[in-house]
Structure formats: C-alpha cells, structure tokens
Amino acid sequence: MTPELDPVIHAQARLRVVVTLNALPEGDQITFPGLKDLLGMTAGNLSVHLGKLEEAGYVEIVKTHRGRTPATYVALTRRGRLAFEEYTAAIRTLLDTTSAPPSGA
C-alpha cells in the first residue's frame, strides 16, 4: 500500500518552509524577513504558503513590535513537527517500497 503524503506539506514551497523551520530548535522562531531571505522567496509568495500552513495548524505567526517597528515571527508548532515527521516517514516508506527489487525477480 502506498503511503499518503500530506498535501499541505507536499507542495514544494511549503515543504521548503517546513524543512527550514524544523531545523530550528523546538520553541525557536525566525523573523519573516529572515525566512524570506533564507528561502529566496518573495514576501507575497511566502505569505500565501505560510497562510496555508497556519490554517493547518503547522506554523504559528506572531506579529509584534520591536520598539516602533512591526516584527513578524514564524515558528513550527508541535503539530507541524509531528506532521513533518509523518511526512518524512511516508516518503521513506515510499522510497523503500520503490527501491525494493520486484518479487520473483
């Protein structure tokens, strides 16, 4: 049986976002501009993908101020980390299944 891949994470841009956020220690966050620069994405494109991840409960977005300057922070939630673990396990299973020699060969 082929494992199901989480469609929220599976989109290339969202997968890149989740992989990057997962590399941060649990509880850490990154600024929106920092994440945008790391991924080489436009602000609009990143915002759209973060919105989908936030809707799924995979990321938390906190808007605050540093002095008078607005600041937006992004972090992967526990639910997001678990979803990413399940996604990577499904990919590994899929790869193991497809790399196994055909039975009877």
Automatic annotation (TrEMBL):
<dbReference type="InterPro" id="IPR027395">
    <property type="entry name" value="WH_DNA-bd_dom"/>
</dbReference>
<dbReference type="InterPro" id="IPR036388">
    <property type="entry name" value="WH-like_DNA-bd_sf"/>
</dbReference>
<dbReference type="Pfam" id="PF13601">
    <property type="entry name" value="HTH_34"/>
</dbReference>
<feature type="domain" description="Winged helix DNA-binding">
    <location>
        <begin position="14"/>
        <end position="94"/>
    </location>
</feature>
<dbReference type="InterPro" id="IPR036390">
    <property type="entry name" value="WH_DNA-bd_sf"/>
</dbReference>
<protein>
    <submittedName>
        <fullName>MarR family transcriptional regulator</fullName>
    </submittedName>
</protein>
<dbReference type="InterPro" id="IPR011991">
    <property type="entry name" value="ArsR-like_HTH"/>
</dbReference>
